[in-house]
Amino acid sequence: MSAHRPAHIGRHALVVLATAISSMAAVPPADAGAKQTIRSISVVGTRFEVTTADGRILPQEDLVGAILTIADGRDQVPLRIDAVEIDPRNPDGGIMLYAMSTRDPTGGAWRNICEPDIEGRRMGFPLAGTWTQDGRHLPSDTAFSITCTGGAQAKCVRFGYRPWETSPDGTPLWDHHQACTRMIRADYCGDGVGHTRNGTPIVVYDHKGIQQDEAAPDMSFEAAWGAGGALCVSHTRIPDVLTMEGLAAICPGVRQQPRTACENRAGGLILNRSVDRRTVQAATE
User: Fold this and answer.
1) How far are the Cα atoms of 115, 132, 227, 263 from residue 15, in angstroms, in the given order?
2) Taking a C-beta distance cutoff of 8 angstroms, is the pair 124, 97 a contact?
3) Is residue 265 within 8 Å of residue 224, measured between CB atoms?
4) Do residue 122 and residue 248 come from a single domain?
5) Are 111 and 193 members of one domain?
6) Is 212 found in the same domain as 89?
7) What is the pLDDT of residues 51-87, one digit of tens each?
8) pTM above 0.85, yes or no
9) Structural domain total, the chain
10) Which structural domain range is residue 258 located in?
C-alpha cells in the first residue's frame, strides 16, 4: 500500500503462535501415481517451505489441500491450506498469501482462521519470531506466528517492512517492522497497549523511501516511531481514546513536538499522518 492510500486497522493480528510444524498430511501428489515423503517443513519469509525426501522443494501450488500439524506449546492444531497466491500488492513474489482453516472444536467443521480485512480478503501468512505481551517482536529459529492480512504484522510486511530483509543501504528492517506495528496500533508507550480503533485511516512513510510521504486531505503529521514505541507526538490519533494530556500521564517520556522537530527526531524509523481531530472539531464549532 503506497503512502497516499490510507491504511486501516484490522482485527486478528495474531492468530496462532506456533513452536513447530510437526508434520504434514494430505499433500496432493505431483502426479496421481506418486507418493511424496516429506523431509522438512519450515517458514521462510512468509512462505511455508516443504522439502521432500529427495531434496525437492514443493511448488507453492502443490500445498493447496495440505494439512499441517501445528504445535502451539500446548496442543496439536490442524491447519489446512485452502488456497495460495502471490500478494497482488507485492508482485516481486516476496510475499505469499494463504487461505487457511482449522477444525471447529465443537462441530468439527473447517473454518477460516482469519476475519475479513478492509478489502474483504481472508488470508494470511506465517512470520518467524515470537511476540511478547508488551508487543515486542523477538527473533526465533523455532517459533512463528500466523498473521492475517487485517492485522498489524501483516500490514507492515505488505507495506515493505519485511523483518527478514534489509533496505537498499543494507539496514536490517527488523526494527522498522517493529516500529511499524507500534504505529499501526498507536502503541505510543511501547507497552503493547494500542490507542486506536478499527477502520481509522492513516498514512505511513519513512526516511528510507520504502513508503513515500504524500499529503492526504485532512491529515497532518502524527508521530515518529521507533521499535520501542513513539519517540515524539504532534497529536494523538483519536482524542476520545487518548488525549495528549492522557499520553503525558502514562508515557511521560513521549513529548509533544511540532512536525519538523519530531519528523527529524534521531531514531525515528516510521512516520505517519492521521486526522487531527482537534483541528476538525475546532473548524466545525
Assistant:
1) 10, 14, 22, 33
2) yes
3) yes
4) no
5) no
6) no
7) 888 899 999 999 999 888 887 767 788 899 999 999 9
8) yes
9) 2
10) 160-285
